Amino acid sequence: MQITSKKLNQFLMLKLPSAWLCGVRVKAISDTNCSVGVKHKWINQNPFKSMYFAVQAMAAELSTGAMVISKIRSQKQPISMLVAQNKSVFTKKATGKIIFKCEDGALIDNAISETLKTGEGQTFWMKSIGINEDGVVVSTFEFEWTVKVKTKK
Questions:
Q1: What does the UniProt keyword field contain (predicted)?
Q2: Residue 63 belongs to a domain with what CATH number?
Q3: What does pTM read for this prediction?
Q4: For residue 46, which of 52, 68, 115, 137 is within the disulfide window of CB 3.0 to 4.6 Å?
């Protein structure tokens, strides 16, 4: 089953309702990139009248993790995934519509291939950049993902 933005948004509503309620939505996904949008609203704002950093983190993580999920599913083997670390930089107040885009999908293939070949866990960093409606970068997130073949117990 191919993962689509519609299926991912349904998943958000059912399994990650806080992201759904805050307005996080997948806009597009392919093998190499994923775009996730979120609009600054009352429900996701901080006291400084901009988007709360955790909402930005949810959208940014989804732009990376959706591709990891998609590529794991295509393997038809049980592989676990987990964020081990993250880093973020905020450069402008996030107001209006923000699109988080990750273009690091190619990094996933090598890590999954290695974990399937060796049985050892693999790590890799993916970057997601949040851009406002004026084309200005508001935040940049990096996530260190780990993937590992699940062992039977």
A1: Isomerase
A2: 3.10.129.10
A3: 0.94
A4: 52
